[in-house]
Task: inverse folding
């Protein structure tokens, strides 16, 4: 259920989130100013592994329910 909120609520929410993001960025920026080791920057692409990809779907032993409904016919022009 969605509750209506005054547009001012969203304006203040955006302002607060922007300030929080800026503070987080400043904090992360201070930490990232540390020297990056050469060992990390010289690794090749062979060290990067791909993700697991798509998961196979599990087989199901359940039977499809029978239906008395007729299937719609296709009326494609030939």
Result:
């Amino acid at each position: 259920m969605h509750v209506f909120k005054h547009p001012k609520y969203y304006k203040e929410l955006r302002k607060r989130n922007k300030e929080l993001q800026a503070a987080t960025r400043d904090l992360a920026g201070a930490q990232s100013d540390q020297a990056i080791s050469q060992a990390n920057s010289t690794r090749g692409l062979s060290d990067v592994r791909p993700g697991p990809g798509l998961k196979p779907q599990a087989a199901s032993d359940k039977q499809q329910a029978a239906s008395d409904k007729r299937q719609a016919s296709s009326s494609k022009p030939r």
Notes: The chain is about 40% helix and 0% strand. Helices lie at 7-32, 38-41. Residues 8 and 14 are 10 Å apart (CA to CA).
